[in-house]
Specification:
alpha+beta; 9 helices; 34% strand; 6-stranded mixed β-sheet; OB fold (Dihydrolipoamide Acetyltransferase, E2P); Rossmann fold; globular; 5-stranded antiparallel β-sheet; single chain
């Protein structure tokens, strides 16, 4: 496990800046015929770490630029702590935006880049030296103070930009994939450190990413965007365990998505016909027979039975192992079960998992309450 980065010995403690609430009311932004942001509404409480997650082109960066003041919406408005800032320029908002590529001053040294917002605020020199030193220690760039952006790597430049933004102690910090240029080890450490700093300072963070693990690790809540619209909002656990749509189910984590039709519904359970399979799922909706649905089941909720007797409340299917992947702490197996393909993921140490081989036949099962029933997306 990556360890959190430690503040420099003797460094000053950062003063909690506090965060502001952010309200987005029916905001839309079009570029020609493309709706980059389409009627988006959000309530972000003060001090929350909110991640905006979605594929490329879903509108998440445009939304962030609207919050920062670099783009103005065609309709709707943005409020920060109740004040309408929809058409205020960036410098008149209590926000700071960390761009995906850093955007450092090329003619200034690393020290001068990080010190810039402190100098504008009129901080005394000794305080600037202390804060800049702490920020550079936090991003592991102590000793780089006198280098210029052209003399450091892209990943290092991104860390300088992050240090500069944090040094300014904004009430709302906006981050556009700020860790994407870092190597895996440092990225994981910075995830933990950013989360710690956010909690310590109380700053409101709005963090744009396409990395699912990053969003799950860092966020108080996650907004999933798709084609300019909000697909789902919730805590990481809520979104992972209770996806609201087929898109959300497959975009966060891995999921088996078994499409079929409702056979019957009643008494808190729905029976779904998936090809020749008849599968049960805990759901109290009164869905009409024939309704097109998709049954979402996470691979880690499915177990290989081996010779064990299945639980009476479980779905049991049999299939041929088409693919077997050893991933160290787990094994992933892909099974052909009738007309469907099912992925199973479990520790490699279980007796049943040890007997799995490509071409073998295996029985797998999952509890009725492990599945989620989703209506088929119109698209």
């Amino acid at each position: 496990m990556a360890r959190p980065l430690s503040p420099a010995a003797g460094a000053v403690e950062l003063v909690a800046s506090g965060g502001h609430s952010v309200t987005v009311e029916h905001v839309s932004r079009r570029f020609g015929d493309i709706a980059a942001v389409d009627d988006v509404s959000l309530e972000i409480p003060a001090g929350e770490f909110l991640s905006v997650l979605g594929p490329s082109g879903c509108g998440k960066t445009t939304l962030l630029r609207i919050l920062a003041g670099f783009e103005h919406p065609d309709t709707g408005r943005v409020l920060i702590d109740g004040r309408d800032v929809t058409f205020d320029p960036p410098h008149r908002r209590p926000t700071n935006l960390v761009f995906q590529r850093g955007a450092l001053f090329p003619h200034r040294t690393v020290f001068e880049n990080v010190a810039y917002p402190l100098q504008r605020r009129g901080e005394p020199r000794h305080r600037i030296r202390e804060i800049v030193g702490q920020m550079l220690e936090m991003v592991r760039l102590t000793g780089f103070e006198q280098r210029r952006p052209s003399e450091i790597s892209g990943g290092q430049a991104q860390r300088v930009a992050l240090a500069r933004a944090l040094a300014a102690r904004p009430a709302v910090l906006l981050l556009d994939e700020p860790l994407s240029a870092l190597d895996l080890s440092l990225r994981k450490e910075m995830q933990l450190e950013l989360r710690r700093l956010q909690e310590e300072l109380g700053t409101t963070f709005v963090f744009v990413t396409h990395d699912q693990e990053e969003a799950l690790t860092m966020s108080s809540r996650i907004v999933i965007m798709r084609a300019g619209r909000v697909e789902q909002i919730g805590t990481p656990r809520e979104i992972y365990e209770h996806p609201a749509s087929m898109f959300a189910s497959t975009f966060i984590g891995d999921s088996n998505l078994l499409r079929g039709t409702v056979r019957s519904a009643g008494e808190g359970e729905v029976v779904v016909a998936v090809g020749e399979l008849s599968l049960r799922v805990a759901d109290d909706r009164a869905l009409a027979p024939g309704t097109e649905v998709a049954l979402s089941v996470r691979p880690e909720r499915i177990t290989t039975l081996g010779d064990a007797a299945p639980d009476g409340g479980a779905n049991v299917v049999t299939g041929e192992v088409l693919e077997l992947v050893f991933l160290g702490n787990r094994v992933r197996a892909r099974l052909a079960c009738g007309t469907s393909t099912v992925w199973v993921e479990e520790p490699p140490t279980t007796p049943a998992a040890r007997r799995l081989t490509e071409g073998s036949v295996a029985r797998v099962a999952w509890p009725v309450d492990a599945g989620r029933l989703l209506l088929v997306d119109p698209s």
